[in-house]
Every structure is written in structure tokens, then in C-alpha cells.
Amino acid sequence: MKVIPVGIWGGYPKANGATSSFLIEHDRFHCLVDCGSGVLASLQNYVPLEKLNAVVISHYHADHIADIGSLQYSRLINYYLGKPSTVLPIYAHDRDEEHFAQLSHKEQTIGVAIQETDIVHIGPFEVSFCETIHPVYCLAMKFKVDGRSVTLTADTEWSDKLVKFASGTDLLISEANLYEEHLGKAPGHMAGSEAGRLAKMTGAKRLVLTHLPLHGNPEDILDAAKGVYEGHAELAVVGKEYEV
Predict the structure, then answer these.
(1) Closest-CA residue to 141 (of 42, 32, 28, 12)
(2) Is 26 in contact with 145 (CB distance < 8 Å)?
(3) 216, 191 Cβ separation under 8 angstroms
(4) 113 near 132, Cβ under 8 Å?
(5) Rounded Cα gap, residues 59 and 144, in angstroms
(6) Considering only the top CATH level, what class is 2-243?
């Protein structure tokens, strides 16, 4: 399994960047996790849009869905050009009926409802979910294949549920949107020390930090994580290939 960060920012992207999103690949199957602002432009550096096989959305905040419409148009334009693609499934929860309905567009994309209790087979992956603590309903997710696993926390405050959910994961991709001085002052997000604590308590083999703030120096967030977690930790790097 190969994981490629497509974007790393929270809220909105820096110039020429993209919000937090990851491309997960195995056996030529390409699955995109979240599709926020700037993601579609960045994604094309790693896979042609028509080769994308599935999308999984953690929640419906704009920095995770802003480019869904553009993705749908890309497939519609190819259809008009005589190059139709198979219907692209977009997996997401249906607790927000209006947003869920927008995931289906003509014969190009179709929304597929997921629940926290589901174990879904998406291409070669077995994918499970865990509700996070965020202002809107949001799902963390774990991808498994060939005895290996990648867990993505999505957007969340500290959650004891995530410790059990991510236990033993090979690669933990954790949000880390807060500096230590903001810990407990911004709902729905974690600081670097909490991401490090989660990696330590789950026994994760590696930790990658994402959903980074646009202000300050994110290296300070990494230092806070390393102060708790003794394994390998780094800030997500767009385009870097993480083999699991």
C-alpha cells in the first residue's frame, strides 16, 4: 500500500497548495481521501483524474469537499468528449442529507452511504470507521490490506475511542491543527502533543501530521509530537510516497 499526501493544510490552502487530502494506492487501485480546496489540481500530479477509482469523505466541511463539484465536472467533460468513465463511487456518511445528495451527479458519480459500524470493501482495501469529536459529524478511517494498515484520524479533538480504533496501525496520519498554546481553546482539533500521545498509545509504527495551520511554524507542532512519541514522526509532505 502506498500513501501520497495531496494536500496538508487545514481551513484553506496556502498559495499553490491544497487542504488535507491523501491518495491511497494498491494494485493500481487509486482511492482519494477528502477532496477540499486545491486538491483536484494537486491530485493530477500523481494520477489522471479518469483513473481515480473511489473517493472517501470524512465530513462535509468545505476544506474536505470544496473540489467535489470540479471532480464531477471533469468526468462529465470526458463523457462529452466521447471518453466516458465508469461511475465513480464517493463514500460518505448520510447524516447530512443535503450534502450527501450532492455526491451523486448524473451518471458520473454516486454517493455511497457509510456508517461508523460499517466495514466496507473498497477495491483491495478493507475500510472501517470511527466517529471523531468535531463540530459536525466526522469519521476517522482505517485502510487495511495484506495485513498492513493506515489510520487517518480526520478532524478531531482528543478521543479515547481513537486509541482503540487505531491500535497497532502501521501508519497513523493524524490531524495536528493546534499549537500547544491553543490546546483546549479551539473545538474539534488536536495539538501536536496529543497527536504524539495518540501514536504512542496506539503503538503506531510511524506518525505523519496533517491538517496543519497556516500561521506560525508547523515545525513547533512536530517538536511537540516528538516530545511524547519516540517513534518516527514527521510533517506530511505533498507528493512524498509513504510505503506501508
Answers:
(1) 32
(2) yes
(3) no
(4) no
(5) 21
(6) alpha beta
What pLDDT score does 224 carry?
Answer: 98
Hey, what's the cell of 65? 469537499
User: What is the Cα–Cα distance from 191 to 176, expressed in whole angstroms?
Assistant: 5
Return the pLDDT at 95.
97
Report field, pTM of the whole predicted structure over 0.85: yes
Give the model's pLDDT for residue 71.
98
- Low-confidence stretches of the chain (pLDDT < 50) are none
Which residue shows C-alpha cell 483513473?
Answer: 51
Alpha-carbon gap, residue 64 to 75, rounded angstroms: 19
How high is the pLDDT of residue 186? 85
Nearest-CA neighbor of 146 among 23, 56, 22, 26? 26
Contact of 62 with 45, CB cutoff 8 Å: no
Encoded amino acid at 134, one letter: H
Q: Are 139 and 93 in contact (CB under 8 A)?
A: yes
Contact 55, 88 (CB under 8 A): yes
Classify 194 in phi/psi space as left (phi over 0), alpha (psi -120 to 50) or beta: alpha
Residues 6+ apart with CB under 8 A from 116: 129, 130, 131, 139
Give 70-120 as a DSSP string: HHHHHHHHHHHTT---PPEEEEE--SSHHHHHTT-BTTTEEEEE--TT-EE
